[in-house]
Amino acid sequence: MSEEKRTEQKGERVKLSAKEAFDxxxxxxxxxxxxxxxxxxxxxxxxxxxxxxxxxxMFLIALTVMIVRFISRx
Length: 74
Description:
Layout: H1 3-10, H2 18-21, H3 25-31, H4 43-72
């Protein structure tokens, strides 16, 4: 059994390192991945992913604005 599974079963909290906490690889992979020809494609799925991308971009812009405002008021 791996270490992660053991800690999850015990209910202990695992601390993330800074590198793990700020790993944006999966987010960027969501935006820049290649189309999979084996996946079914329909209009609803395309719209759902489009809305998800818009919401992620809006969140990142708002987070950037909040950080800039916080730093400028120091």
